[in-house]
Amino acid sequence: MNGIVVSVSADATHRFCKPVTASIWLLEGLGVKGDAHFGVTVQHRSRVAKDPTQPNLRQVHLIQSELFEELALAGFEVHPGQMGENVTTRGIDLLSLPAGAHLELGDAAAIAITGLRNPCFQIDHFQNGLMKAVLDRDEDGALIRKAGVMGIVLKSGEVRPGDAIRVTFPPQPHQPLQVV
User: Fold this and answer.
1) Domains along the chain?
2) HSE-up of residue 69 (Cα within 13 Å, Cβ side)
3) pLDDT category, 120, cuts 50, 70, 90?
4) Is residue 110 within 8 Å of 104, Cβ to Cβ?
């Protein structure tokens, strides 16, 4: 399973949308240089309030651009960076990856997928009804979260639009993604 980087984004301030940039630097064990979620320990404000010492499993946020096409069919207009992701991808079903899958981005950078993003109330402030559109139910009634995946940086490197993404799966048995 291989894909491509469509867009990259970072923002030093805790805001819902992140501006698109020409490139981002992923720094091993820390995240996206210059991003509000950069650090060894958790940086997400609600999680910091509960326990600021927990490890940062949300250093990099990725969303597949195919979600934007699905949302457009439902009447929403969403572009890269607008849902707070650092990396927008194409060609990889991020949501079907197992926990611990590795993504090599470009020539040097690598991340490990840690889990699913749990969309928060801010998503409806961005576009009314978007929260419901990024949540679904499977045939058994279980909740499906479509707002992207989170990861940690395993190997530093610069990431740009157009970079190849190569997926490596962890050993079996694969563990499904859970919310992190």
Assistant:
1) 2-168 (2.40.33.20)
2) 7
3) confident
4) yes
